[in-house]
Amino acid sequence: MSIAPAATGHTQRTSDLWWRDAVIYQVYVRSFLDSTGDGIGDLAGVRAGLPYLKKLGVDGIWLSPFYPSPQHDHGYDVANYRDVDPVYGDLEVFDRLMADARRMGIKVLLDVVPNHCSSEHPWFREAVAAGRGSYERTRFHFADGRGENGEEPPNNWRAMFGGPAWTRVTEPDGTPGQWYLHLFTPQQPDLNWRNPEIPDSFDAILRFWLDRGVDGFRIDVAAGLYKHPELPDSDDPEADERSRDSVNPLAWNQPEVHNVWRHWRSVCEEYTARDGHDRLLVGEVSVPTAREHALYVRPDELHQAFFFDLLGAPWDADAFHKTINEAMRDIAGTGSTVTWVLNNHDQVRTVTRYAGEPGPEGSGLGSARARAAALLMLALPGAAYIYQGEELGLPEVVDLPDEVLTDPIFHRTGSRKRIRDGCRVPLPWSGHASPFGFSSGAEGARPWLPQPDWFAEHATDRALADTRSFWHLYRDGLQLRRGLPQLGEGTLRWLDSEPEVLAFERGDGLVCAINFGTGPTAAPVSGTPLLSSGPCPAGVLPGSTAAWWLTDGTIG
């Protein structure tokens, strides 16, 4: 079976669009590298790490929010969209980072947060102070409560991070007042995109950073922004809280949001027309099906949107087969390319997710599967995103003590289930004890989240020295990707294989096979692999292993 993107009538050039097959490295700034010794990563640390990323071979970086913020959700509660929080540096440091990245040929994407801002943003402070019925409150979703004295929330929605999606304010005269909507935490009030000042302001925000030379934006909660105009009760009000995902159809994926992305695309195209350099919009789009996902990457909307279904798929050949098929059919069929991802700052790391048991104890099987999945992802036509530490084979840190946890999910629910601190522990760079080279401060400087002793096994200096490491697998895969002529545009043809094996050939002659089973099986190609995730004799594909071969295109 051959899968190729469907004809769309879209005539946009594709040969020089760097983003179509780019590999972007997600930098969680707070945990990447600390240049000041305060235990918190910063922009100067990112700048110092650019040679490392250049050596790894990525095409660009996506920076997590570094804007001024009270850090209730580590930057996803933005108080000022056009500056740098002092804990991360300042605009001068950012400009130096941009200059170095440009010189090295590394693209830079910023994380923009348009669905909500911080409760300390001047707009929200003005809204609370202005009182009921004011223009300032129309920038948000303020509403009167239900009940005899307005003591009940305006509707029954629950927040994704736990608890009611509404918080009541005290009016300027000291009396209990209206309620405001927040689909995450009370410190992150949702903006009202039906107020024309909001889209106009974000237009200016985009231009501010584009004028400073950024190559594009990762858009947080890209299926959000608009809510049902009547804010009615939900038939399943706990859906978002239960799944920790954007499920409530009254709060997410409203049709008006597509006009926002059409406008943002036009802004990017305006800058592209000036210098011929493409700017990228990649959305965090969480919707139920690949077909709905595809609506966000139509030719005049977002360039790309993260395809999370591969990240969410269980370690199973049929599940991966179904997921890849749907993405190639529905998303690539729009004229975009699929944006593959296996890890990010909100999810349990693959080494632990695939292990079947938590922590480093299960990292043997988990590591083998994570290596195989990485090679599969890098072989698929389209773009790919790597989360920092993925190239080091880091497992999730699952035993952080309660008193150090910072995730608002934990603090709102009291539950450790689905908390995100474990994948955000600062990276180990060198040495045998914390801070493992993460902090340049005095010996013993404490990272903002504690690093376990076993991080020494995954330190960057050790990974670079070991040719069998995750790091070398990623580096070799990225180098080989660059030599494949149809990387972004290629077709995908499934080959006959054993039940627990997936094998496909691309239009450029690359064959990739992955064995989801535990025992060896016959390889789909007889020769020695070009690259494999583990030892792979000619003609054999061991269990939990993936491999690449390059053929003349006549196989099968």
TrEMBL record:
A Gene Ontology molecular function term of the record: hydrolase activity
Pfam families according to UniProt: Alpha-amylase
UniProt KW keywords: Hydrolase
UniProt xrefs under InterPro entries: GH, GH13_cat_dom, O16G_dom_2
Highest taxon of the lineage: Bacteria
Residue ranges, annotated region (Disordered): 228-248
Residues annotated as domain Glycosyl hydrolase family 13 catalytic: 26-424
Family: Belongs to the glycosyl hydrolase 13 family.
Record-given protein name: Glycoside hydrolase family 13 protein
